[in-house]
């Protein structure tokens, strides 16, 4: 089997590759070829070098998607495609044309490349798409269930919602076997702050745990839906293994997570790392970020995903401990 991970240099992509390197049977079948693609060159673990090809490209570039899909005699065509590539919410909102070019046009180019390859000879890969809770917009019920409609209030959310519809339609037409995963805000993200409007949710935990100051641009009352990077990787592994006949025609699922306020995050940080860490959070209101975040959903009842076997954390303390275990070698600064 050949797996292609697009967006493999990003946080989830890197961790997904690391999971496969540590647990080669995690996808439920033998993988003899792995393609890692991103706008910067992805890195393959030494143990996977022999079966890995890395590609540096953008799906929005002419011919890039076709080069990932087409192969000779079917030997190079990916059997499973994990589509993680995107620019983040804050950047997509600030750079309107770029957001649509990367997040929407790039996805459609990929889907069309799969369709055209299927016209040449039979082809129907499994495709797992990373969507977002940004597909939902106000007004919200107290808890959003699986019947709530998509009304995004950002360009990023609109791009993801349109792509979800394409995933369903191309699947209905038998072009690929698709499933879209609406990810919670992934927290605590390792590394440095990025342009995501949601970045502060991780920053106010990650930096204090490392003994550094973090900026909090919103009020403690801001509430959101979270899962750890470890849970996010599990979502994609499970989606690859899943019998999609059990999913039915509605191919986009809200992933499990936990609902917490910023104040709950800070309380959890205090329980895990003490007042010293909490004092490193500096409050600096940002009206732009507050405006974007105010239109995001806060709590969910992801019944379909839970029934299909997707799982996430139950307490924010668990998310902090996972970050300490996975990124800090189990030690606090």
Short description:
The chain is α/β, with parallel strands linked by helices.
The poorly predicted ranges are none
**Main sheet?**
7 strands, parallel
Structure summary, number of beta strands: 12
> In angstroms, what separates the terminal alpha carbons?
43 Å
List keywords for this structure.
333 residues; alpha/beta; 7-stranded parallel β-sheet; 3-stranded mixed β-sheet; 12 helices
What can you tell me about this protein's structure?
With 333 residues, this protein is α/β, with parallel strands linked by helices. The chain contains 12 helices and 12 strands. The chain has helices spanning 11-22, 64-69, 89-94, 96-120, 155-172, 199-209, 229-241, 262-273, 275-278, 287-294, 303-307, 316-327; strands at 2-6, 33-38, 52-56, 80-83, 126-132, 177-183, 185-186, 214-216, 223-227, 252-254, 258-261, 281-283. It has a 7-stranded parallel sheet with strand order 3-2-1-4-5-6-10, sandwiched between helices. Strands 7-9-11 form a 3-stranded mixed sheet. The protein is globular.
Write the layout of secondary structure elements.
Layout: E1 2-6, H1 11-22, E2 33-38, E3 52-56, H2 64-69, E4 80-83, H3 89-94, H4 96-120, E5 126-132, H5 155-172, E6 177-183, E7 185-186, H6 199-209, E8 214-216, E9 223-227, H7 229-241, E10 252-254, E11 258-261, H8 262-273, H9 275-278, E12 281-283, H10 287-294, H11 303-307, H12 316-327
Helix pairs in contact: 1-7, 4-5, 6-8, 8-12
């Amino acid at each position: 089997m050949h797996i292609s991970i697009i967006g493999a240099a990003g946080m989830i992509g890197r961790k997904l590759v690391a999971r496969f390197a540590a647990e080669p049977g995690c996808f439920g079948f033998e993988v003899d070829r792995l393609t890692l693609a991103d706008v910067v060159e992805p890195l393959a673990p030494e143990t996977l070098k022999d079966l890995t090809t890395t590609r540096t490209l953008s799906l929005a570039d002419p011919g890039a998607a076709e080069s990932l899909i087409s192969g000779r005699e079917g030997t190079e065509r990916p059997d499973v495609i994990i589509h993680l590539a995107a620019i983040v919410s804050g950047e997509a909102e600030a750079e309107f044309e770029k957001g649509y070019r990367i997040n929407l046009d790039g996805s459609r180019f990929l889907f069309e490349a799969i369709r055209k390859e299927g016209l040449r000879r039979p082809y129907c890969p499994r495709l797992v798409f990373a969507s977002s809770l940004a597909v939902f917009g106000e007004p919200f019920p107290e808890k959003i269930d699986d019947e709530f409609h998509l009304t995004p209030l950002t360009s990023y959310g609109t791009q993801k919602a349109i792509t979800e519809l394409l995933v369903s339609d191309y699947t209905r037409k038998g072009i690929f076997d698709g499933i879209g995963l609406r990810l919670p805000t992934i927290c605590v993200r390792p590394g440095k702050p990025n342009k995501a409007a949601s970045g502060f949710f991780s920053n106010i935990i990650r930096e204090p745990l490392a003994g550094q100051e973090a900026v909090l641009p919103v009020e403690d009352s801001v509430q959101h839906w979270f899962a750890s990077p470890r849970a996010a990787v599990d979502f994609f592994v499970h989606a690859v293994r899943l019998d999609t006949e059990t999913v039915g025609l509605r191919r986009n699922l809200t992933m499990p997570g936990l609902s917490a306020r910023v104040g709950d995050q800070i309380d959890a940080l205090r329980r895990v790392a003490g007042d010293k860490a909490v004092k490193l959070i500096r409050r600096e209101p940002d009206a732009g970020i507050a405006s974007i975040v105010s239109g995001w959903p806060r709590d969910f009842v992801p019944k379909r995903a839970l029934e299909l076997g997707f799982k996430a954390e139950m307490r924010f303390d668990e998310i902090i401990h996972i970050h300490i275990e996975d990124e800090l070698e189990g030690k606090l600064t």
